[in-house]
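2024-03-11 09:14:02 INFO receiving multi-entity request
2024-03-11 09:14:02 INFO entity count = two
2024-03-11 09:14:03 INFO echoing inputs for audit
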Amino acid sequence: MTQSSPPRPGVWKRSLRLIAILLAIWFTASLGLGVLLAEPLNRIWVGGFPLGFWFAQQGAILIFLVLLLVNAIAMDRIERDADRSEDTEDPS
Amino acid sequence: MSITGWTLVFVVGSFALYSAIAVASRVQTTSGFYVAGRGVSALANGMATGADWMSAASFISMAGLISFMGYDGAIYLMGWTGGYVLLALLVAPYLRRYGRYTIPEFVGDRFASQTARLTAVACAVFISFTYVAGQMRGVGVVFSRFLTIPVEYGVAIGGIIVLLYATLGGMRGITYTQVAQYCVLIVAFLIPAGAISWMMTGTPIPQIGFGSPLIEGERAGVALLRAIDQIHTDLGLPEYTGAFLAGKKTLPDVFAITMALMTGTAGLPHVLIRFYTVKTARLARWSVMWALFFIAILYTTAPAVAAFARVNMIQTLHNTPFAEAPDWFRNWAATGLIRFTDRNGDGLMQYSEGPGAELAIDRDIMVLANPEIAELPAWVVGLVAAGGLAAALSTAAGLLLVISASVSHDLLKSFLRPGMSERQELVAARLSAAGACVVAIVVGIYPPDYVAAVVAFAFGLAAASFFPALVLGVFTTWVTARGAVAGMIAGTGFTAVYIGWFKVFEWSGPEAWWFGISPEGIGTLGMLINFGVTWFVSRRTGPPPPDSAKMVAMLRGER
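2024-03-11 09:21:47 INFO inference complete, emitting structure
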């Protein structure tokens, strides 16, 4: 846990921006489309699903998964940029 | 071979596998015991987290509950997956960067306060014990239904298996048995789900079948969900897919419950400690991604299973003469989980809900009876039993480790007996894991009345205690020790009192709910109270601990 790497002040600012964007999508996809707007969206049927119901029971989960994939990749890039001079660990 | 024979084969076989893994992964160090030596790969950790997370409730009860709730079932689906987004963005990588072994340890170090640490220990032990009692009960129920072994023996057998691998292997043993348990439970869930989807919509992928037309029966050619809505309308029930209709949950309640389950997920200690087991913060982020991937496989399948079961059940039972009831109906009626009372004396089974209904159907059989409804071979039924046990045991083990580490590491090592050697601490950890396991077995056999009512509220308590402390600990520098302690006590206290008032003692009815929020969702308000109190008290209790800024910079990866 002891970290001897040099200060990387840019990391936190870029992480915060990423977190804010992803959280906004997280909220919109689940509590927004799946709950707050569920009633009007349910009047639209797409491919055998009322849209509000689909977001609440399927779509939100799939979007969450994409968010976490984007987060893992983007944070890797942010950290790699921050300590370009240093070697990072191998991917799992 | 009979259903009982196959069940025995799968249950004994899977238990033998778990025991073999336990012996192979036994540990000799505290680091191995608490955090599996931090050598777990992101993929394996994701799988283990999936099993750790998906309990008897997810495996056995959730699809059945959704089947009776319709749209409202989304509270579980979004709540128990959306929490992983919060975990990945706000908590897991920072906890890993901190390192060490337990959640109370993080809280204590971050706010430089033993009081904060002890408050966190109390919250962690309380949350984990309420949760573990339900798991042990789940083990007993699976045994009694599939092997006609009395519930008590079932609980004891399951408990002894957990005892074996938790004390021998600690986190390492638990991790690798959880990986095996994930594989067992997901196969056991997907095979019957795929078969039912194939039978009803002609596609073996439940998520697609969910939106496809039915291929047989009186509503052949009609999209599954439209068919259910029509059936509901015919029976005078609110539409299955409809949101916030009369007789369903209100918008504020759905919002609050979903939020409470999400933030609770991101604050449950047995999930959080899983992210200590990987090598770096980066791998912690990838672990959460994999965890959600493995969880989403079951969580996107479950609502489809719920819908298939809904149509199947009503179409095969409604207005069918009792004398011609299908075989699976007779089998499950024998267990008392389905009951038919011919109230109007016409010999037909009429489906309705509420008082005066002729059919009383236990929610749990929607998953358990699925293989029989789909006329699958007997070995699938045995596999489902093993899957249910895997789900319950894996969650129980994770919870027991939290309790054991809280006692041996946070209470003994840091507080009561700081002079302990590592070897002594390891003995203490094994003993407290064994002790916690014995208590869990006893509680599972003689469940106190309040357990059933409270188990679902572990989330509310986690949302109101840990989530704000962890998030503020990483994202701000101004929180003082007193602020953090006051916030945790206020949030947890408020949530516990509200739940006790409305759910355990039932001193008032739903008409008195604050803002129309049910006890299930009150953790959301408890969390806001925690945030508010922490802020208020921190402002009044002088400067934050001197090293706050330094530690926060380390957590954020700035230095």
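2024-03-11 09:21:48 INFO post-check: The mean pLDDT of chain B is 89.
2024-03-11 09:21:48 INFO post-check: The first helix of chain B runs from residue 3 to 24.
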